[in-house]
Amino acid sequence: MKQSELREFLNAKVLQYNHPNFLESDPLQIPHQFSKREDIEISAFLTATIAWGNRKSIINNANRMMELLDQAPFEFVTQHEHKDLEKLSSFVHRTFNGIDLTYFIQSLQNIYQNHGGLENCFLKNIESNSMQPAISTFKSLFFELPHPLRTTKHISDPLKGSAAKRINMFLRWMVRDGSTGVDFGLWNQIKASKLSCPLDVHSGNVARKLKLLKRKQNDAKALAELDKSLRKLDPQDPVKYDFALFGLGVFEKF
Length: 254
Description:
Layout (H helix, E strand, L loop, with lengths): L2 H15 L19 H13 L5 H14 L4 H7 L12 E2 L2 E2 H17 L3 H4 L10 H11 L22 H11 L25 H9 L10 H14 L7 H10 L4
Antiparallel strand pairs: 1-2
């Protein structure tokens, strides 16, 4: 398939899946329950954190998290007292448990009270065409408080070889244009051109079949290779093709 034909094919799939109907089976529906900027950010960040495994389970457990936060994530994060954290101990999603959730809430409180909020924490070390060094810096900041060692595995570090799928997905949600009613476009200090595709088994397999990616592992090197291919198709909004790759893989078994 010629590049022009590939672009036309994938652009059509973007139009098909970058649509509110996509939300019916996607964890992104969770932050769409909220209207306040900080509630959207926090619910999206926590939902993205547990976004691996069965999608129905992810959605159910993300809703459970919002219930534990009294359906007011920003208020809970910024105004909770120590005793309020006790109820979080019952939470579990795969290897992410109440210990991890408790630290995440404490760290988010620190971020909003002392670092100007989540967006501000991703503005350091952005490269000309990559958010990956900024994600690594964010991880260091997120764990600047005393924390359980076990919890650090729940935020990936691209500079240590990870494709950082969940953080890249969260950034897509926050940064990409929200006019279609899927992503939010809440953050305007980060350009969509710097985003990376959330690389997982579905998007990776489709990308290989379309010859956008040769590397077999879904790691940081594969992400850099896929970034390069997608930027050739659309340098201003390369991560829009996440909809096409994911949709082709999950819904069409491409």
